[in-house]
Amino acid sequence: MLSQILNILFSGILLGMVYAVAALGLSLTMGIMGVVNVSHSAFVMLGSFLALELLERLGVDPIASFFIALPLFFATGALVYQVIVRRVERAQQTQGLVALFGLMVLIESLGTMVWTTNTRVITSSYSNAHLTIAGATLASVSLIAGALALVLLAAFWVFLRYTLTGRAIRAMGQDRAAARSLGVDVGRLSTIMFGLGIASAGAAGVAIGMVFPFAPQTQIQWLAWAFLIVVLGGMGKVENTLAAALFVGLVQAIATSLLPFDYVYLMLYAGLAVVLVVRREGLVGANRRMI
Known about the structure:
Layout: H1 2-33, H2 40-58, H3 62-88, H4 93-115, E1 130-133, E2 136-139, H5 140-162, H6 164-174, H7 176-181, H8 186-211, H9 219-233, H10 238-258, H11 264-278
Antiparallel strand pairs: 1-2
Helix pairs in contact: 1-5, 1-8, 1-9, 1-10, 2-3, 2-4, 2-8, 2-9, 3-8, 5-6, 5-8, 6-8, 9-10, 10-11
């Protein structure tokens, strides 16, 4: 009985950490920049396929791919900001949504052309390995993916909290006009912040690909999960995103152990409804762009 409870607890925590890193970039770009990046999940999908291609063609371990994805997707995100987002972020909200939705559809369509709609899995030397902790048996890939996600979350938290650039980004999120009047280069910081959001999406895709099957069309599932976590936790804080994701992961793990699979998602969205009825500002009380 105890081992079963520990299994559920550990599984929920590890699942929550992967969910947190999947939602991190969306939470930060929405909370700090006010940009609803609906193409976020498309970059998550690309991260999964990057890890697959590196493993199959070059033999690169997915752990290494996680860190390789960060600079590659940061550069991609910075380019996307300069070419697309910068032109529409201060326009009407619908223009930005349409532009980024178009980018999401384009990436998914190109992904389907290149990789087809077949579901893929990343199989490494430790894919079938397990580790026993206090009587609970856990898949090694889940532990590794959870650890990688935690490292990235901690790195983002430290960057935003303790570095000069991170503090300037937080100031920009609180009051863009005031930050500009104090000499903050808002354009440069926006490029950095959007690049970091896409970098976290790409790295999240690698972690997700280690644990879950994926295909180009499954990216929409991760967009739904990311929005669920952002709604629960509020925008713009790493710790809020982690708290909401852990809540979702634990609820899913408990529901999976007690209910038929068809009812798991019902439980999750029912939990979301309850939280928003009881606490309209979300699980951790963050409905404003406060960094």
